[in-house]
Design goal:
Strand content: 25-35%
Number of domains: 3
Order of helices and strands: HHHHHEEEEEEEEEEEEE
Strand order of the largest sheet: 2-8-7-4-5
Structural class: alpha+beta
Shape: rod-shaped
Distance between the termini: 123 Å
Radius of gyration: 43 Å
Number of helices: 5
Helix content: 10-25%
Largest sheet: 5 strands, mixed
Length: 230
């Protein structure tokens, strides 16, 4: 009896030896690997040795997820068959890299009265390896000293070169126009109609008018009393 049992064991096909050809070999190469439903059918309908041979020969088209493994075990797959499926199955695609973000970009203060006053720029980056301002890496917060109304663009970078940006504007408060000096030469005339030169110094003004007319510095005038206005 022991001798017969030993002979029977030796005659069992192992890992594809003396196996009937896999039916998938009659299919086009692109259609040979098992879909999930065909894989489950193989596990249900074939012996573990035959299933192992078919899976190795034909391949598997779907990744071995936790759910698929549970379904295979429910269909009768043992650890050896699961291991073969894991070897033959494609690896799950790596998740795409998450894009960096940058938010809460603020300027404190957001308005200055004089050029060069310090301003603190704050920001909140996420999934970023660096934040750049004007091509330089910066930390949060960063101090800037604008000389005029300026919009700053802060750019967050991740390890794969993807970027996100935000902008914040610092305004330079313009001083009201002023005339700091205004003088007539001469400041007294003897005869009507003698010319008088009016000189003035203005700041922050786009134009200076005299009696409603635009003038330039040292405009000649008649003998009347004149007043410089902005």
């Amino acid at each position: 009896m022991r001798r017969l049992l030993t002979i029977a064991i030796l005659l069992m096909p192992l890992h594809g030896q003396n196996q009937a050809p896999a039916p998938c070999l009659d299919r086009p190469p692109a259609d040979r690997s098992y879909t999930q439903s065909r894989l489950l059918d193989v596990v249900r309908l074939q012996t573990p040795i035959r299933a192992t041979y078919l899976i190795r020969t034909c391949g598997v088209r779907v990744p071995l997820t936790a759910q698929l493994e549970a379904e295979l075990r429910e269909a009768g797959a043992e650890d050896g068959v699961i291991a073969v499926v894991r070897e033959a199955a494609p690896r799950p695609a790596a998740p795409p890299p998450q894009l960096p973000t940058i938010a809460n970009c603020t300027a404190t203060p957001d308005e200055i009265g004089s050029p060069g006053e310090p301003v603190s720029l704050g920001f909140t980056p996420a999934r970023a390896t660096a934040v750049m301002l004007n091509g330089l890496a910066i930390t949060n917060p960063v101090t800037v000293q604008p000389t005029k109304t300026t919009t700053y663009t802060l750019i967050a970078h991740n390890a794969t070169g993807q970027t996100a940006s935000c902008q914040v504007t610092v305004r330079l408060r313009e001083a009201p126009p002023a005339i700091s000096s205004c003088a007539a030469t001469p400041n007294e005339i003897a005869n009507p109609g003698e010319p008088v030169s009016i000189a003035f110094t203005s700041t922050g003004a786009s134009a200076v008018t005299l009696n409603g007319l635009g003038i330039t510095n040292r405009s000649p005038s008649g003998p009347q009393k004149r007043r410089c206005t902005r």
